[in-house]
Amino acid sequence: MEPIEEYIKDHSNDFNYLELEENSWDNLHQKMQEKPKSFQRKFLWIIIGVLSLLFLFFYWKYPQPEQNYVAIGLEEEMYFPELNLMNPDGESISVSDLKGKVVLVEFWASYCMACTQEHCYYFKPLYKNFKEEGFEIYSVSTDSSAVNWVHAIERDEMDWIHVSDLMGENSPTVSEFDVKHLPTNYLLNQEGKIIAKNVDVEKLEDTLKQLLAYNSEK
Amino acid sequence: MQNITEDIEINLIERSILGEANAQKQLYHRYASAMLNVAYRITKNEEDAKDILQDSFIKVFLQLQNLKRKEGFAAWIKRIVVNTSISHVKKKGLLIIDSTKEYKDIPEVEISQKELSLNDVKLALMQLPNGYRTVLSLYLIEGYDHQEISQILDISKSTSLTQYSRGKKKLIHLLQKKNQYGTH
């Protein structure tokens, strides 16, 4: 062992650079008594976190069966994509032309009995009452026959916007707008955002009142 | 005599486990000052050393009941302080031991005990780079061997040895420079 090593080893108790502060024990003692408290707090936060995750999970897994215009699936709050088709007279009409109105985009077909029922019992009176206040219906038919399509419009006296690409149920429009059954509808607000998919037509009147009243207040 | 102090300490430890604040305080004052300096020799930072002292003692009092051999308390607490200090400087990126880095060979030097004063050695030790200072302190002052140091620092034993011998040469070099130019 070299002299320097020996020297340091012999003096190993003397290599002190700092002195203990007088209140150092008190500080430590205080901190030790805080410790369990902060542990409990951490524990509490973990419990809150787990509970809220569970809540979110179940909320997502079991959505409310009542589907009015709130709390609908993923499409909610998205802007409705551009949709531009021709009416029976050959004029093309786009959904975005209807901005500023509350629009019900509906997919239907002349052979769909449920659609006809909805049209006659709900859409006609609603359209009559609310079209002046800024409500529009944009009905997209998935018919492939123009004759059947126009016949159904005239038979049921539906005087709102009707369009179709007349490509039947295999039309790209059907898959693009996720139409799995007829009727399917999307309710758009004045900005063109989707508020709801497949609104309950029985509650549509209340929904429209809310939306249009909000608009007129503004 | 040794036995009596050991008995007193074991008694203090047992009472500390039961949560007796007075025993904890006595146990603290037996070791705190030495442990503060263990932490300082590794961190070279007063505030860090104080924080490490506190954190270490919190660990000590929390885990005291798990200590099997109460006679090994002194070594146990020192190891806690050393480990806490090392992980602290590593976290701050201050302790990088790079054995591959080529240093210019410092010529073999010797210094006799007559030329040494405690104050100079203490100062010179603090002037060493972090890696050298840590290995030197752990070996010469804390009394660990190179096997233990390699575990503590997570380096190989041969790295510990080369760091040590380079650090030692550097230390002598610093002391000789001091003797050459120093005025006192």
CATH superfamily of the largest domain in chain A: Glutaredoxin
Oligomer: heterodimer
Tally of separate helices of chain A: 6
CATH architecture descriptor of the largest domain in chain A: 3-Layer(aba) Sandwich
Can you describe this structure?
The complex is a heterodimer of chains A (218) and B (184). Chain A is of the alpha/beta class and 218 residues long. Chain A has 2 domains: 20-62; 84-217, Glutaredoxin. Chain A has helices spanning 3-10, 24-61, 113-130, 146-155, 172-176, 204-217; strands at 84-86, 92-94, 102-108, 135-141, 161-164, 184-188, 194-197. In chain A, the strands form 2 sheets. Chain A has a 5-stranded mixed beta sheet, with helices on one face. Chain A has a two-stranded antiparallel ribbon with strand order 1-2. The termini of chain A are far apart. Chain B is mainly α. Chain B has 2 domains: 2-91, Orthogonal Bundle (Rna Polymerase Sigma Factor, Chain: A); 113-181, Arc Repressor Mutant, subunit A, CATH 1.10.10.10. Helix content of chain B is 71%, strand content 0%. In chain B, helix 7 packs across helix 8 (157-181). The longest helix of chain B is centred in the C-terminal third of the chain and has 25 residues, at 157-181. Chain B is elongated, with a radius of gyration of 19 Å. In chain B, 33% of the residues are buried. The mean pLDDT of chain B is 88. The chains are: A alpha/beta (218), B mainly alpha (184). Chains A and B meet through helix 1 and helix 2 of A and helix 2, helix 3, helix 5, helix 6 and helix 8 of B.
Characteristic key phrases:
heterodimer; A: 218 residues; alpha/beta; Glutaredoxin; 5-stranded mixed beta sheet; 43% helix; elongated; B: 184 residues; mainly alpha; Rna Polymerase Sigma Factor, Chain: A; Arc Repressor Mutant, subunit A
